[in-house]
Automatic annotation (TrEMBL):
SUPFAM superfamilies: GST C-terminal domain-like (SSF47616), Thioredoxin-like (SSF52833). This is Glutathione S-transferase. It comes from the Eukaryota. Keywords: Cytoplasm, Transferase. Coiled coil: none annotated. It comes from Oryza sativa subsp. indica (Rice). InterPro entries: Glutathione-S-Trfase_C-like (IPR010987), Glutathione-S-Trfase_C_sf (IPR036282), Glutathione_S-Trfase (IPR040079), Glutathione_S-Trfase_N (IPR004045), GST_C_Tau (IPR045074), Omega/Tau-like (IPR045073), Thioredoxin-like_sf (IPR036249). Belongs to the GST superfamily. Tau family. The lineage of its organism: Eukaryota, Viridiplantae, Streptophyta, Embryophyta, Tracheophyta. One of its GO terms (molecular function) is glutathione transferase activity. Its main location: cytoplasm. GO terms for biological process: glutathione metabolic process; toxin catabolic process. The keyword Transferase applies.
Length: 241
């Protein structure tokens, strides 16, 4: 890449944390080498690059490792020129960081055991209905409060171009769609959450997003395979007990 910079991304399917780094690199127009990790058999490079958490993603820039997806996103924005992912305005930066933390905390691809493994996106929120519109995540992210707060009527959370919040929520789009296929649930329903449903379509249509976002069918297949493996293991345990 330009300036002799060398970028290596340690990643693994089906991590949305990795997807968000790929989105940020794509929107910045940066090229990089993708190093696929086997999380069941982590490489020496991963273990030495992220000795604290031993997780992907790790971005290695000219030999220097950076861990934790949100830290990586901000590093990419600061270290490289190109479209800014965060505005210069301190207050707007604070609002964007608030919603990024909120999405990370409340909207998760959750894996749980309930007679089988389910990988679905669920609002990780136990607050009671506060305003008659579902409360909690419904009122906040799903009800569009985040979008209204950040975008000021512009197409993206980042305004006219995508920013940190777009990338963080956008990295979950393929999981949202896979969840819809697997459970029949509508995550962002145009009838109930028109702003977010329109944002999802707008974000998904961008060239960078199309190149980076994993195939929904691949996620569905991954989940179904995991379900089969878990069911087979459960059957063996039951027959031995
Ligand atoms: N907070 C981390 C989470 C990263 C994470 O959970 N990575 C998972 C894959 S989705 C991982 O590497 N898991 C391997 C392990 O837990 O051993 C981030 O934002 O980067």
């Amino acid at each position: 890449m330009a300036g002799g910079d060398e970028l290596k991304l340690l990643g693994a399917f089906p991590s949305a944390y990795v997807t968000r780094v790929e989105l940020a690199l794509g929107f910045k127009g940066l090229s990089y080498e993708y190093v696929k990790e086997d999380l069941a058999n982590k490489s020496e490079l991963l273990l030495s690059s992220n000795p604290v958490h031993k997780k992907v993603p790790v971005l290695i820039h000219n030999g220097k490792p950076i861990s934790e997806s949100q830290v990586i996103l901000e590093y990419i924005d600061e270290a490289f020129t190109g479209a800014s992912l965060l505005t210069r305005d301190p207050y707007e930066r604070a609002v964007a960081r608030f919603w990024v933390a909120y999405i990370d905390d409340k909207l998760k691809v959750t894996i749980f055991w309930n007679g089988g493994v389910h990988y679905i996106m669920v609002p990780n929120d136990t607050r009671k209905d506060e305003g008659g519109e579902g409360g909690g995540v419904e009122a906040d992210v799903r009800g569009g409060r985040a979008l209204k707060d950040s975008s000021k009527g512009k197409p993206f959370f980042g305004g006219d171009t995508v920013g940190l919040v777009d990338i963080t929520l956008g990295s979950l789009i393929a999981w949202m769609k896979a969840t819809e296929v697997l459970t029949g649930a509508k995550i962002f329903d145009p009838a109930k959450t028109p702003l977010l449903a329109a944002w999802t379509e707008r974000f998904a249509e961008l060239d960078t997003t199309k190149k980076v976002l994993p195939d929904v069918a691949g996620y569905v297949e991954y989940v179904n395979k995991r379900r089969q493996t878990q069911a087979a293991t459960a059957a063996v345990v039951a027959s031995n007990s």
